[in-house]
């Protein structure tokens, strides 16, 4: 069974940076894109970014471009999300996810595309 475990969340000051990690195990990842999602109180779960299995192609939603960077280390089975210039509205539970191939790569950031979720890690941006 594919498992994903996030780490790196916590409390950070506005304008600060945080790097989330997600360790995977259970099955090979060669046919999965890996993504990051978040869910804030009172809001729907939203996709932020995905990185593909083969050429490590990346896709970001518009709100994530410029501040967030997704990467993966296949040797370690780990996907990362570097978050810079954090704002209070970034406060949410952040989830990593494994996503099977889609007809369009941009579909990777739709929650309905996800095959397996991590348990989430809380990120709180507050002064």
Protein described:
The chain is mostly beta strands and 127 residues long. It has no helices and eleven strands. It has strands at residues 3-7, 10-12, 18-25, 33-39, 46-51, 58-60, 68-73, 78-83, 92-99, 116-117, 121-125. Strands 2, 4, 5, 6, 9, 10 and 11 form a seven-stranded mixed beta sheet that branches. β5 and β6 (58-60) form a beta hairpin. It is globular. 33% of the residues are buried.
Helical amount: under 10%
User: What is the terminal separation in angstroms?
Assistant: 40 Å
- Strand count: 11
Strand content is: over 45%
Task: Report the total helices.
Answer: 0
What global shape is seen?
A: globular
Element string (H = helix, E = strand): EEEEEEEEEEE
Regions with little confidence, pLDDT below 50 for 5+ residues: none
Q: What is Rg?
A: 14 Å
Give the biggest beta sheet: 7 strands, mixed
Name the average pLDDT.
96
Class by SSE composition: mainly beta
What's the gist of this structure?
With 127 residues, the chain is mostly beta strands.
Q: Which key features would you list for this structure?
A:
mainly beta, 4-stranded antiparallel β-sheet, 46% strand
Element layout with pairings:
Layout: E1 3-7, E2 10-12, E3 18-25, E4 33-39, E5 46-51, E6 58-60, E7 68-73, E8 78-83, E9 92-99, E10 116-117, E11 121-125
Parallel strand pairs: 2-11
Antiparallel strand pairs: 1-3, 3-8, 4-5, 4-9, 5-6, 7-8, 9-10, 9-11
